């Protein structure tokens, strides 16, 4: 059985063109959100060290995107009034 290898997008930027192959697995609301549609793609470029990919036999099998956002400390105990959209903006 082949091993699944987890790396960051920063370590494997050459797989970026293949991320579009996974749009069909995203929740529908993510595909219909104007802010997410406009900005989420930038996560792999702007936060490549926080976005993960999984490869098996050097083939892309999964990816995860992340955007740094401070939450849960004394200064920020809840999401901003604009929610996810405001975080992305």
From TrEMBL:
This is Uncharacterized protein. It comes from the Bacteria.
